[in-house]
Specification:
Blueprint: E1 2-6, H1 13-24, E2 28-30, H2 31-41, H3 44-55, H4 61-72, E3 81-84, H5 90-102, E4 109-114, H6 117-125, E5 127-130, E6 136-138, E7 157-158, H7 165-188, E8 192-196, H8 201-214
Parallel strand pairs: 1-3, 1-4, 2-3, 4-8
Antiparallel strand pairs: 5-6, 5-7
């Protein structure tokens, strides 16, 4: 099964992708996570990407494409994947198509997680991330048991630099500029399934899993 999760920052793509990856035993590929790891490691790619990321802008296509190609060559991806954060533009959708064509595989479904601006801002500006295991918390929606400390591994929590309100607004603006054509692109390929992601994460996950397992068209756009 090869799935793409599409949606604005804060739609819960990361949360859904992680849970789906467990549920369907597939690798979760997040271009944002790979980029953040590169920034943390101080790699050349990380150094080139950091400034764009801090400003809420897209990292140039060629950098992200090289990074994605490398990840797609890994052995574990042969059984399928859940792609989160890529593609973000038509250009990237075409790059992805080329990568997959070489491997003679196709995307099965693209899930569009529709989310309102108010929900996005509330979710992202309150998000807290573990500096060690990457687990996500939220200052009010899902607070850790002990303030500033990860429930899972005990490491410290931090706010992503691009989760400051001003940067979140910029990210929404960047996203909206590109998404309409991307939605149209996958709709025309008859791959798009649209659902509301304003609701609680567990309910959204159930809808996706139900769809993937049953293969029905009940939430088709
Ligand atoms: P995310 O974790 O998906 O919200 O991504 C965080 C940041 O990483 C974005 O705001 C971009 O700066 C960068 N990024 C992630 N994925 C991509 C992509 N497909 N194309 C360009 N930049 C990306």
């Amino acid at each position: 099964m090869k799935l793409i999760l599409l949606g604005p920052p804060g739609a819960g793509k990361g949360t859904q992708a992680k849970r789906l990856a467990e549920e369907l035993a597939l690798p979760h590929i997040s271009t944002g996570d790979i980029l953040r790891q590169n920034v943390k490691d101080g790699s050349l790619l990380g150094k080139e990407a950091k400034d764009y990321m801090d400003k809420g802008l897209l990292v140039p296509d060629d950098l992200v494409a090289r990074m994605l190609k490398k990840r797609m060559d890994s052995e574990d991806v042969k059984k399928g994947f859940i792609l989160d954060g890529y593609p973000r533009t038509i250009n990237q959708a075409k790059t992805l198509e080329e990568i997959l064509k070489e491997k003679k595989v196709n995307i099965d479904f693209v899930f569009y997680l529709d989310t309102s601006d108010a929900v996005i801002i509330q979710r992202l500006t309150g998000r807290l991330v573990c500096s060690s295991c990457g687990a996500n918390f939220h200052a009010t929606n899902m607070p850790p048991k002990k303030a500033g400390i990860c429930d899972k591994c005990g490491a410290t929590l931090f706010q992503r630099t691009d989760d400051k309100e001003e940067t979140v607004r910029k990210r929404i603006e960047v996203y909206k500029k590109e998404v309409a054509s991307l939605v149209e692109y996958y709709k025309n390929l008859n791959k798009l399934r649209c659902l509301s992601a304003d609701k609680e994460a567990g309910l959204v996950l159930n809808e996706i899993v139900k769809f993937v397992r049953a293969g029905n068209d009940s939430i088709k756009v």
